[in-house]
Amino acid sequence: xxxxxxxxxxxxxxxxPHHPSMHGVLRLIVTLDGEDVIDCEPILGYxxxxxxxxxxxxxxxxxxxxxxxxxxxxxxxxxxxxVNAPEQLGNIQVPKRASYIRVIMLELSRIASHLLWLGPFxxxxxxxxxxxxxxxxxxLVYDLFEAATGMxxxxxxxxxxxxxxxxxxxxxxxxxxxxDYFLTGVSEYQKLITRNPIFLERVEGVGIIGVEEAINWGLxxxxxxxxxxxxxxxxxDRYECYDEFDWEVQWQKEGDSLSRYLVRIGEMVESIKxxxxxxEGIPGGxxxxxxxxxxxxxxxxxxxxFDYRFIxxxxxxxxxxxxxxLYVRVEAPKGxxxxxxxxxxxxxxxxxKIRPPGFINLQILPQLLIGEMIIDTxxxxxxxxxxxxxxxxxxxxxxxxxxxxxxxxxxxTIGVLAIVWLEREISAGLQQRIGPEYAxxxxxxxxxxxxxKLLFKENLLPSRGDTRLFSIGPSIAVISILLSYLIIPxxxxxxxxxxxxxxxxxIAISSIAPIGLLMSGYGSNNKYSFLGGLRAAAQSISYEIPxxxxxxxxxxxxxx
Length: 560
Known about the structure:
Blueprint: E1 11-15, E2 27-33, E3 36-43, H1 51-55, H2 60-67, H3 75-90, H4 96-124, H5 129-149, E4 158-159, E5 162-163, H6 171-194, H7 197-203, H8 211-216, H9 222-225, H10 233-236, H11 257-281, H12 306-310, E6 325-332, E7 335-342, E8 351-355, H13 357-361, H14 365-369, H15 377-381, H16 388-431, H17 444-455, H18 467-483, H19 499-510, H20 513-523, H21 527-559
Antiparallel strand pairs: 1-2, 2-3, 4-5, 6-7, 7-8
């Protein structure tokens, strides 16, 4: 790592390999100047298990259970490349039905991998909701895998010349139902994420990779296609039966994190199209080429006698790899997954070299991070910086969403509190008394207590009364008060032209409220409630109606 010696107060942050924000066992040594990244050194190899040397000491069938550990998110692709290499080396034909089944499984695995990319990616930039949504669809994919292979992650389903077992009864219908359901899920993701202004601000224009840079660094998969290059091995190499389906290569030309997101979202939709076409047109016939399940050369004939074959251990079906070399590749979710195979007229490969897409794509990581802020690191490599600004942006986003909801609620609450405060002030002035009405500055605290009590009061409906009439009464009382604002004399710019006349008119129109009290009391079908309504109405009428009659002529004259 090259750290400039002239700078001072630099901070070296060690992220990984067991950092909670590192999705995998990648380690980054990041040098920061404030919040700016001036150097980054990725350190790989913490999950190295010697998979290549294990392959060179096993037959292909014996090695198949190991390969799903290459990539836990795209296990079907590791099995596919493991069997494709000896198939092409030995020119082994795969039945059409088996090829269709393989395509279905590969595209389901692609969807599961992209989903588990999408969830942590959104969580790292501050959006937690999609992280929980993606497990909903991903579990459905794993249910389909479990029904067909018996395992949810480590399937061991692909075989040289086909697959291990045919699809069970009813599996095709279940998969078609999943396709219809998943399309609605993708629409939810697009509505929730794609046009979110906070998301766009975080990913648009971040981590830009040009066309020449993508080619020179050997990038593949969504990282290559997001830079404007329409390169998909399913179209280029035409392996399996992808050329029989109608689908499009998803690509963008901006080369930033937003483009890589759009490519993956589009690929999930295209995968659904491929799966639907494969399910509708899947042919009959065998699911495995049984002719290759035999020994090409018998090394120990005495081991094939009756006792060994039916009593003791049986050798796994295998064949010799011809003396030649071959490079095979498939389009995995992360990019080009390849295997370089050298045969030596033996059941074991002489050389088995894996070309992982993630390892190659990470070469460009230091170049992308240098010059960016530490908060932009998640958009480039799914790394959470735990920056304070991250959480502030998330809070601002939540406030921006909740403002349209809270604005009317807050307006109604303030209106109720203002009405209660004004009513208590007028009542205290008419009765020439002070006390609780003046609790707090200008009696605000008392109004706040009364208004809160009014808002949270229980809504009790009598069981034997007229519920409709009982419910209309309070509405009339409230509407009368709200209507009073229509006749208050406001001037230009909504300025109250005459406070005294405005208050009098407000009292006059609000005198309709006793009618609502009487309606509620009568509708309760209870004499005590009715008497209470009469008492409340009489209390209002005792000073509101006389006051209205006294000031009516003055009010009309002032308005005229």
